[in-house]
Amino acid sequence: MTPLQKGDLVAIVAPAKSIEKKFITYAVELFEKQGYKIWLGLHVLDQFNYFSGTDDERCSDFQEALDHPDVKAIVCARGGYGAIRIIDRLQWASFIRSPKWIIGFSDITVFHQRVFRYELESIHASMPLNFEQNSTEALSTLFEVLAGDFQPFSLPYNPCNKTGKSQGKLVGGNLSILYSLLGTDEKIDFNNTILFIEEIGEQLYHLDRMLFAFSKAGVFDKIKGLIVGGMTGMKDTEISIGMNYQEIILSHLTYHNLPVCFDFPVGHIDDNRALVIGKTVELIVTNTNTTLNYV
């Protein structure tokens, strides 16, 4: 993917839930301060029930951004729900011929998985809805990646980690979205990948259920490492399942010899740092720290 230059055009579209104007205004100012020009989707501030416009309107904006010859990156305004409703309506031919960054997380995992199937890269990163609350590092890593600067990550030791060293293409995103795509025509080949997951507001028993689906689909037999990001607001039932989320995740990896790291700064957290899906990475988990390097 070609690094962005000052003056390049960045599109902001809203392919899922509706968003208030103040978040878009802040995002426009943020990108302009970085030297980029902004193209706004026609329906970015619309609302149709839950969504930022009808399926046709959201699809039209995204398609125009995909096809626009001058747009170098597409920033999704927010997640929520809606990407899956338009993914098959989109025509990807011009994007495949002339790739551009697609940026976002949460529901935008749908687009990331499609792009990975095309053997291209995309950016799992924060979105306009969250920019004001994000950490300095969350925003700086986004702009570094856009400029072609792929910095390594270094994290402190976590007692839940499983040590090891591995290499593979980085895949992942929101666990519920990844789970919803298992067994569909959107499924990806998990062979020789490093998988990262994040989640928000799920019941612990449902986390266990989703991980059983991954296990029974053979995902854990194929991946070379697991990165666990923010598991925000996880909930237990009145009669407890008896495990925390770390214990649930590790229970599915008992017989898999692969490195696992917890508390990676990615997901529904303020410190949601940019990760490049589709890029080859090296994951090293030791008894003193964890590093993730782009290869």
Structure description:
The protein has helices at 21-33, 55-67, 83-86, 93-97, 109-117, 136-146, 175-181, 204-216, 219-222, 245-251; strands spanning 9-13, 37-40, 71-76, 101-104, 122-124, 153-156, 164-174, 193-200, 225-232, 260-261, 275-277, 280-285, 289-294. The protein is α/β, with parallel strands linked by helices and 295 residues long. It has two domains: 9-146, Murein tetrapeptidase LD-carboxypeptidase, N-terminal domain (Rossmann fold, 3-Layer(aba) Sandwich), CATH 3.40.50.10740; 153-294, LD-carboxypeptidase A C-terminal domain-like (Glucose Oxidase, domain 1), CATH 3.50.30. Strands 6-13-12-7-8-9-10 form a seven-stranded mixed sheet. Strands 2-1-3-4-5-11 form a six-stranded mixed sheet, sandwiched between helices. A hairpin with a 3-residue loop joins strand 12 (280-285) and strand 13 (289-294).
In brief, what are we looking at here?
The protein has 295 residues and is an alpha/beta fold.
